[in-house]
Task: structure prediction
Amino acid sequence: MSAMRHLRYHRWIATGMLRRLAVIAFPSLCLLTLATLPACSRLVSMAANDLADNISQAIANNDDPATVREGGPAYLLMLDGMIHSDPENESLLIKASALYNTYGAAFVQDPERAKKLSTRALDYAMRAVCVRYPDDCGLRQADFEVFEARIQRIERQDVPLFFTLGAAWAGWIQAHKADLDAVAELSRVEAIMQRIVIDDESYRQGSAHLYLGAFAILVPPALGGKPEVARDHFERAITLSNGDNLMAKVVYAQQYARMVYDRDLHDRLLTEVLAADPNVPEMVLQNTLAQDQARALLANADDYF
Result:
């Protein structure tokens, strides 16, 4: 990777943008006879998937970040246990990756803990890809040209899987930002997100656009940054979410408005975030965190501008 690209990636990572997201009761019928084992396995797998869905929904719709911070580790361990019992359950792997990534980015400040959680998130995502596409088990180690060609074959039904991979990979790079080899892998995340906006740009309220907006403005315009491209991606993310994704406005303000020194845009976006109702289904926690970050950005705006 060129020295300029390293500089761009390090600047993006330095902003910390990514830090802005039991025991299963086995059905008794499974104990009746060995002849029922295949059906038992399917029932247990379905029950585990349903429970993981419920956990994800409960966390996403929680408006108290402190509760999630304190209670989240128990759910992470529970998902680990489920995967231990069902290691090729793609749905569980995807949900565990997303939860580890979100929890680490939102709540973990200790660098060593962040490395561990992000590594597990990326591992689960890669395992999910491997379960669906065994030929892709070595995708991470492939030459970039081979990797990029494979990413171009992603289809719409693959978007949730590969978005999870890209997000977890970006989180892993954030946690390992002191490692130049890790930073070099950010170009692979960019390739994934570029493909996702082609296949299904509305996925996760246009979140892939947020990544691409950040990539486009890693450095000031004088050094090759593309602020207008970044602005278009941020605006598109806001449009795709109907303005409900408050984190999109926070990232827009921090990554773009501060870069181009547009104080009016910066303050308008953050004021809109604080005035909005965060209680949007599946986005309550994210929006609550966005409002916390908006307050902090407004509080130090005079020092920045």
Q: What stands out?
A: The CA atoms of residues 205 and 241 lie 5 Å apart.
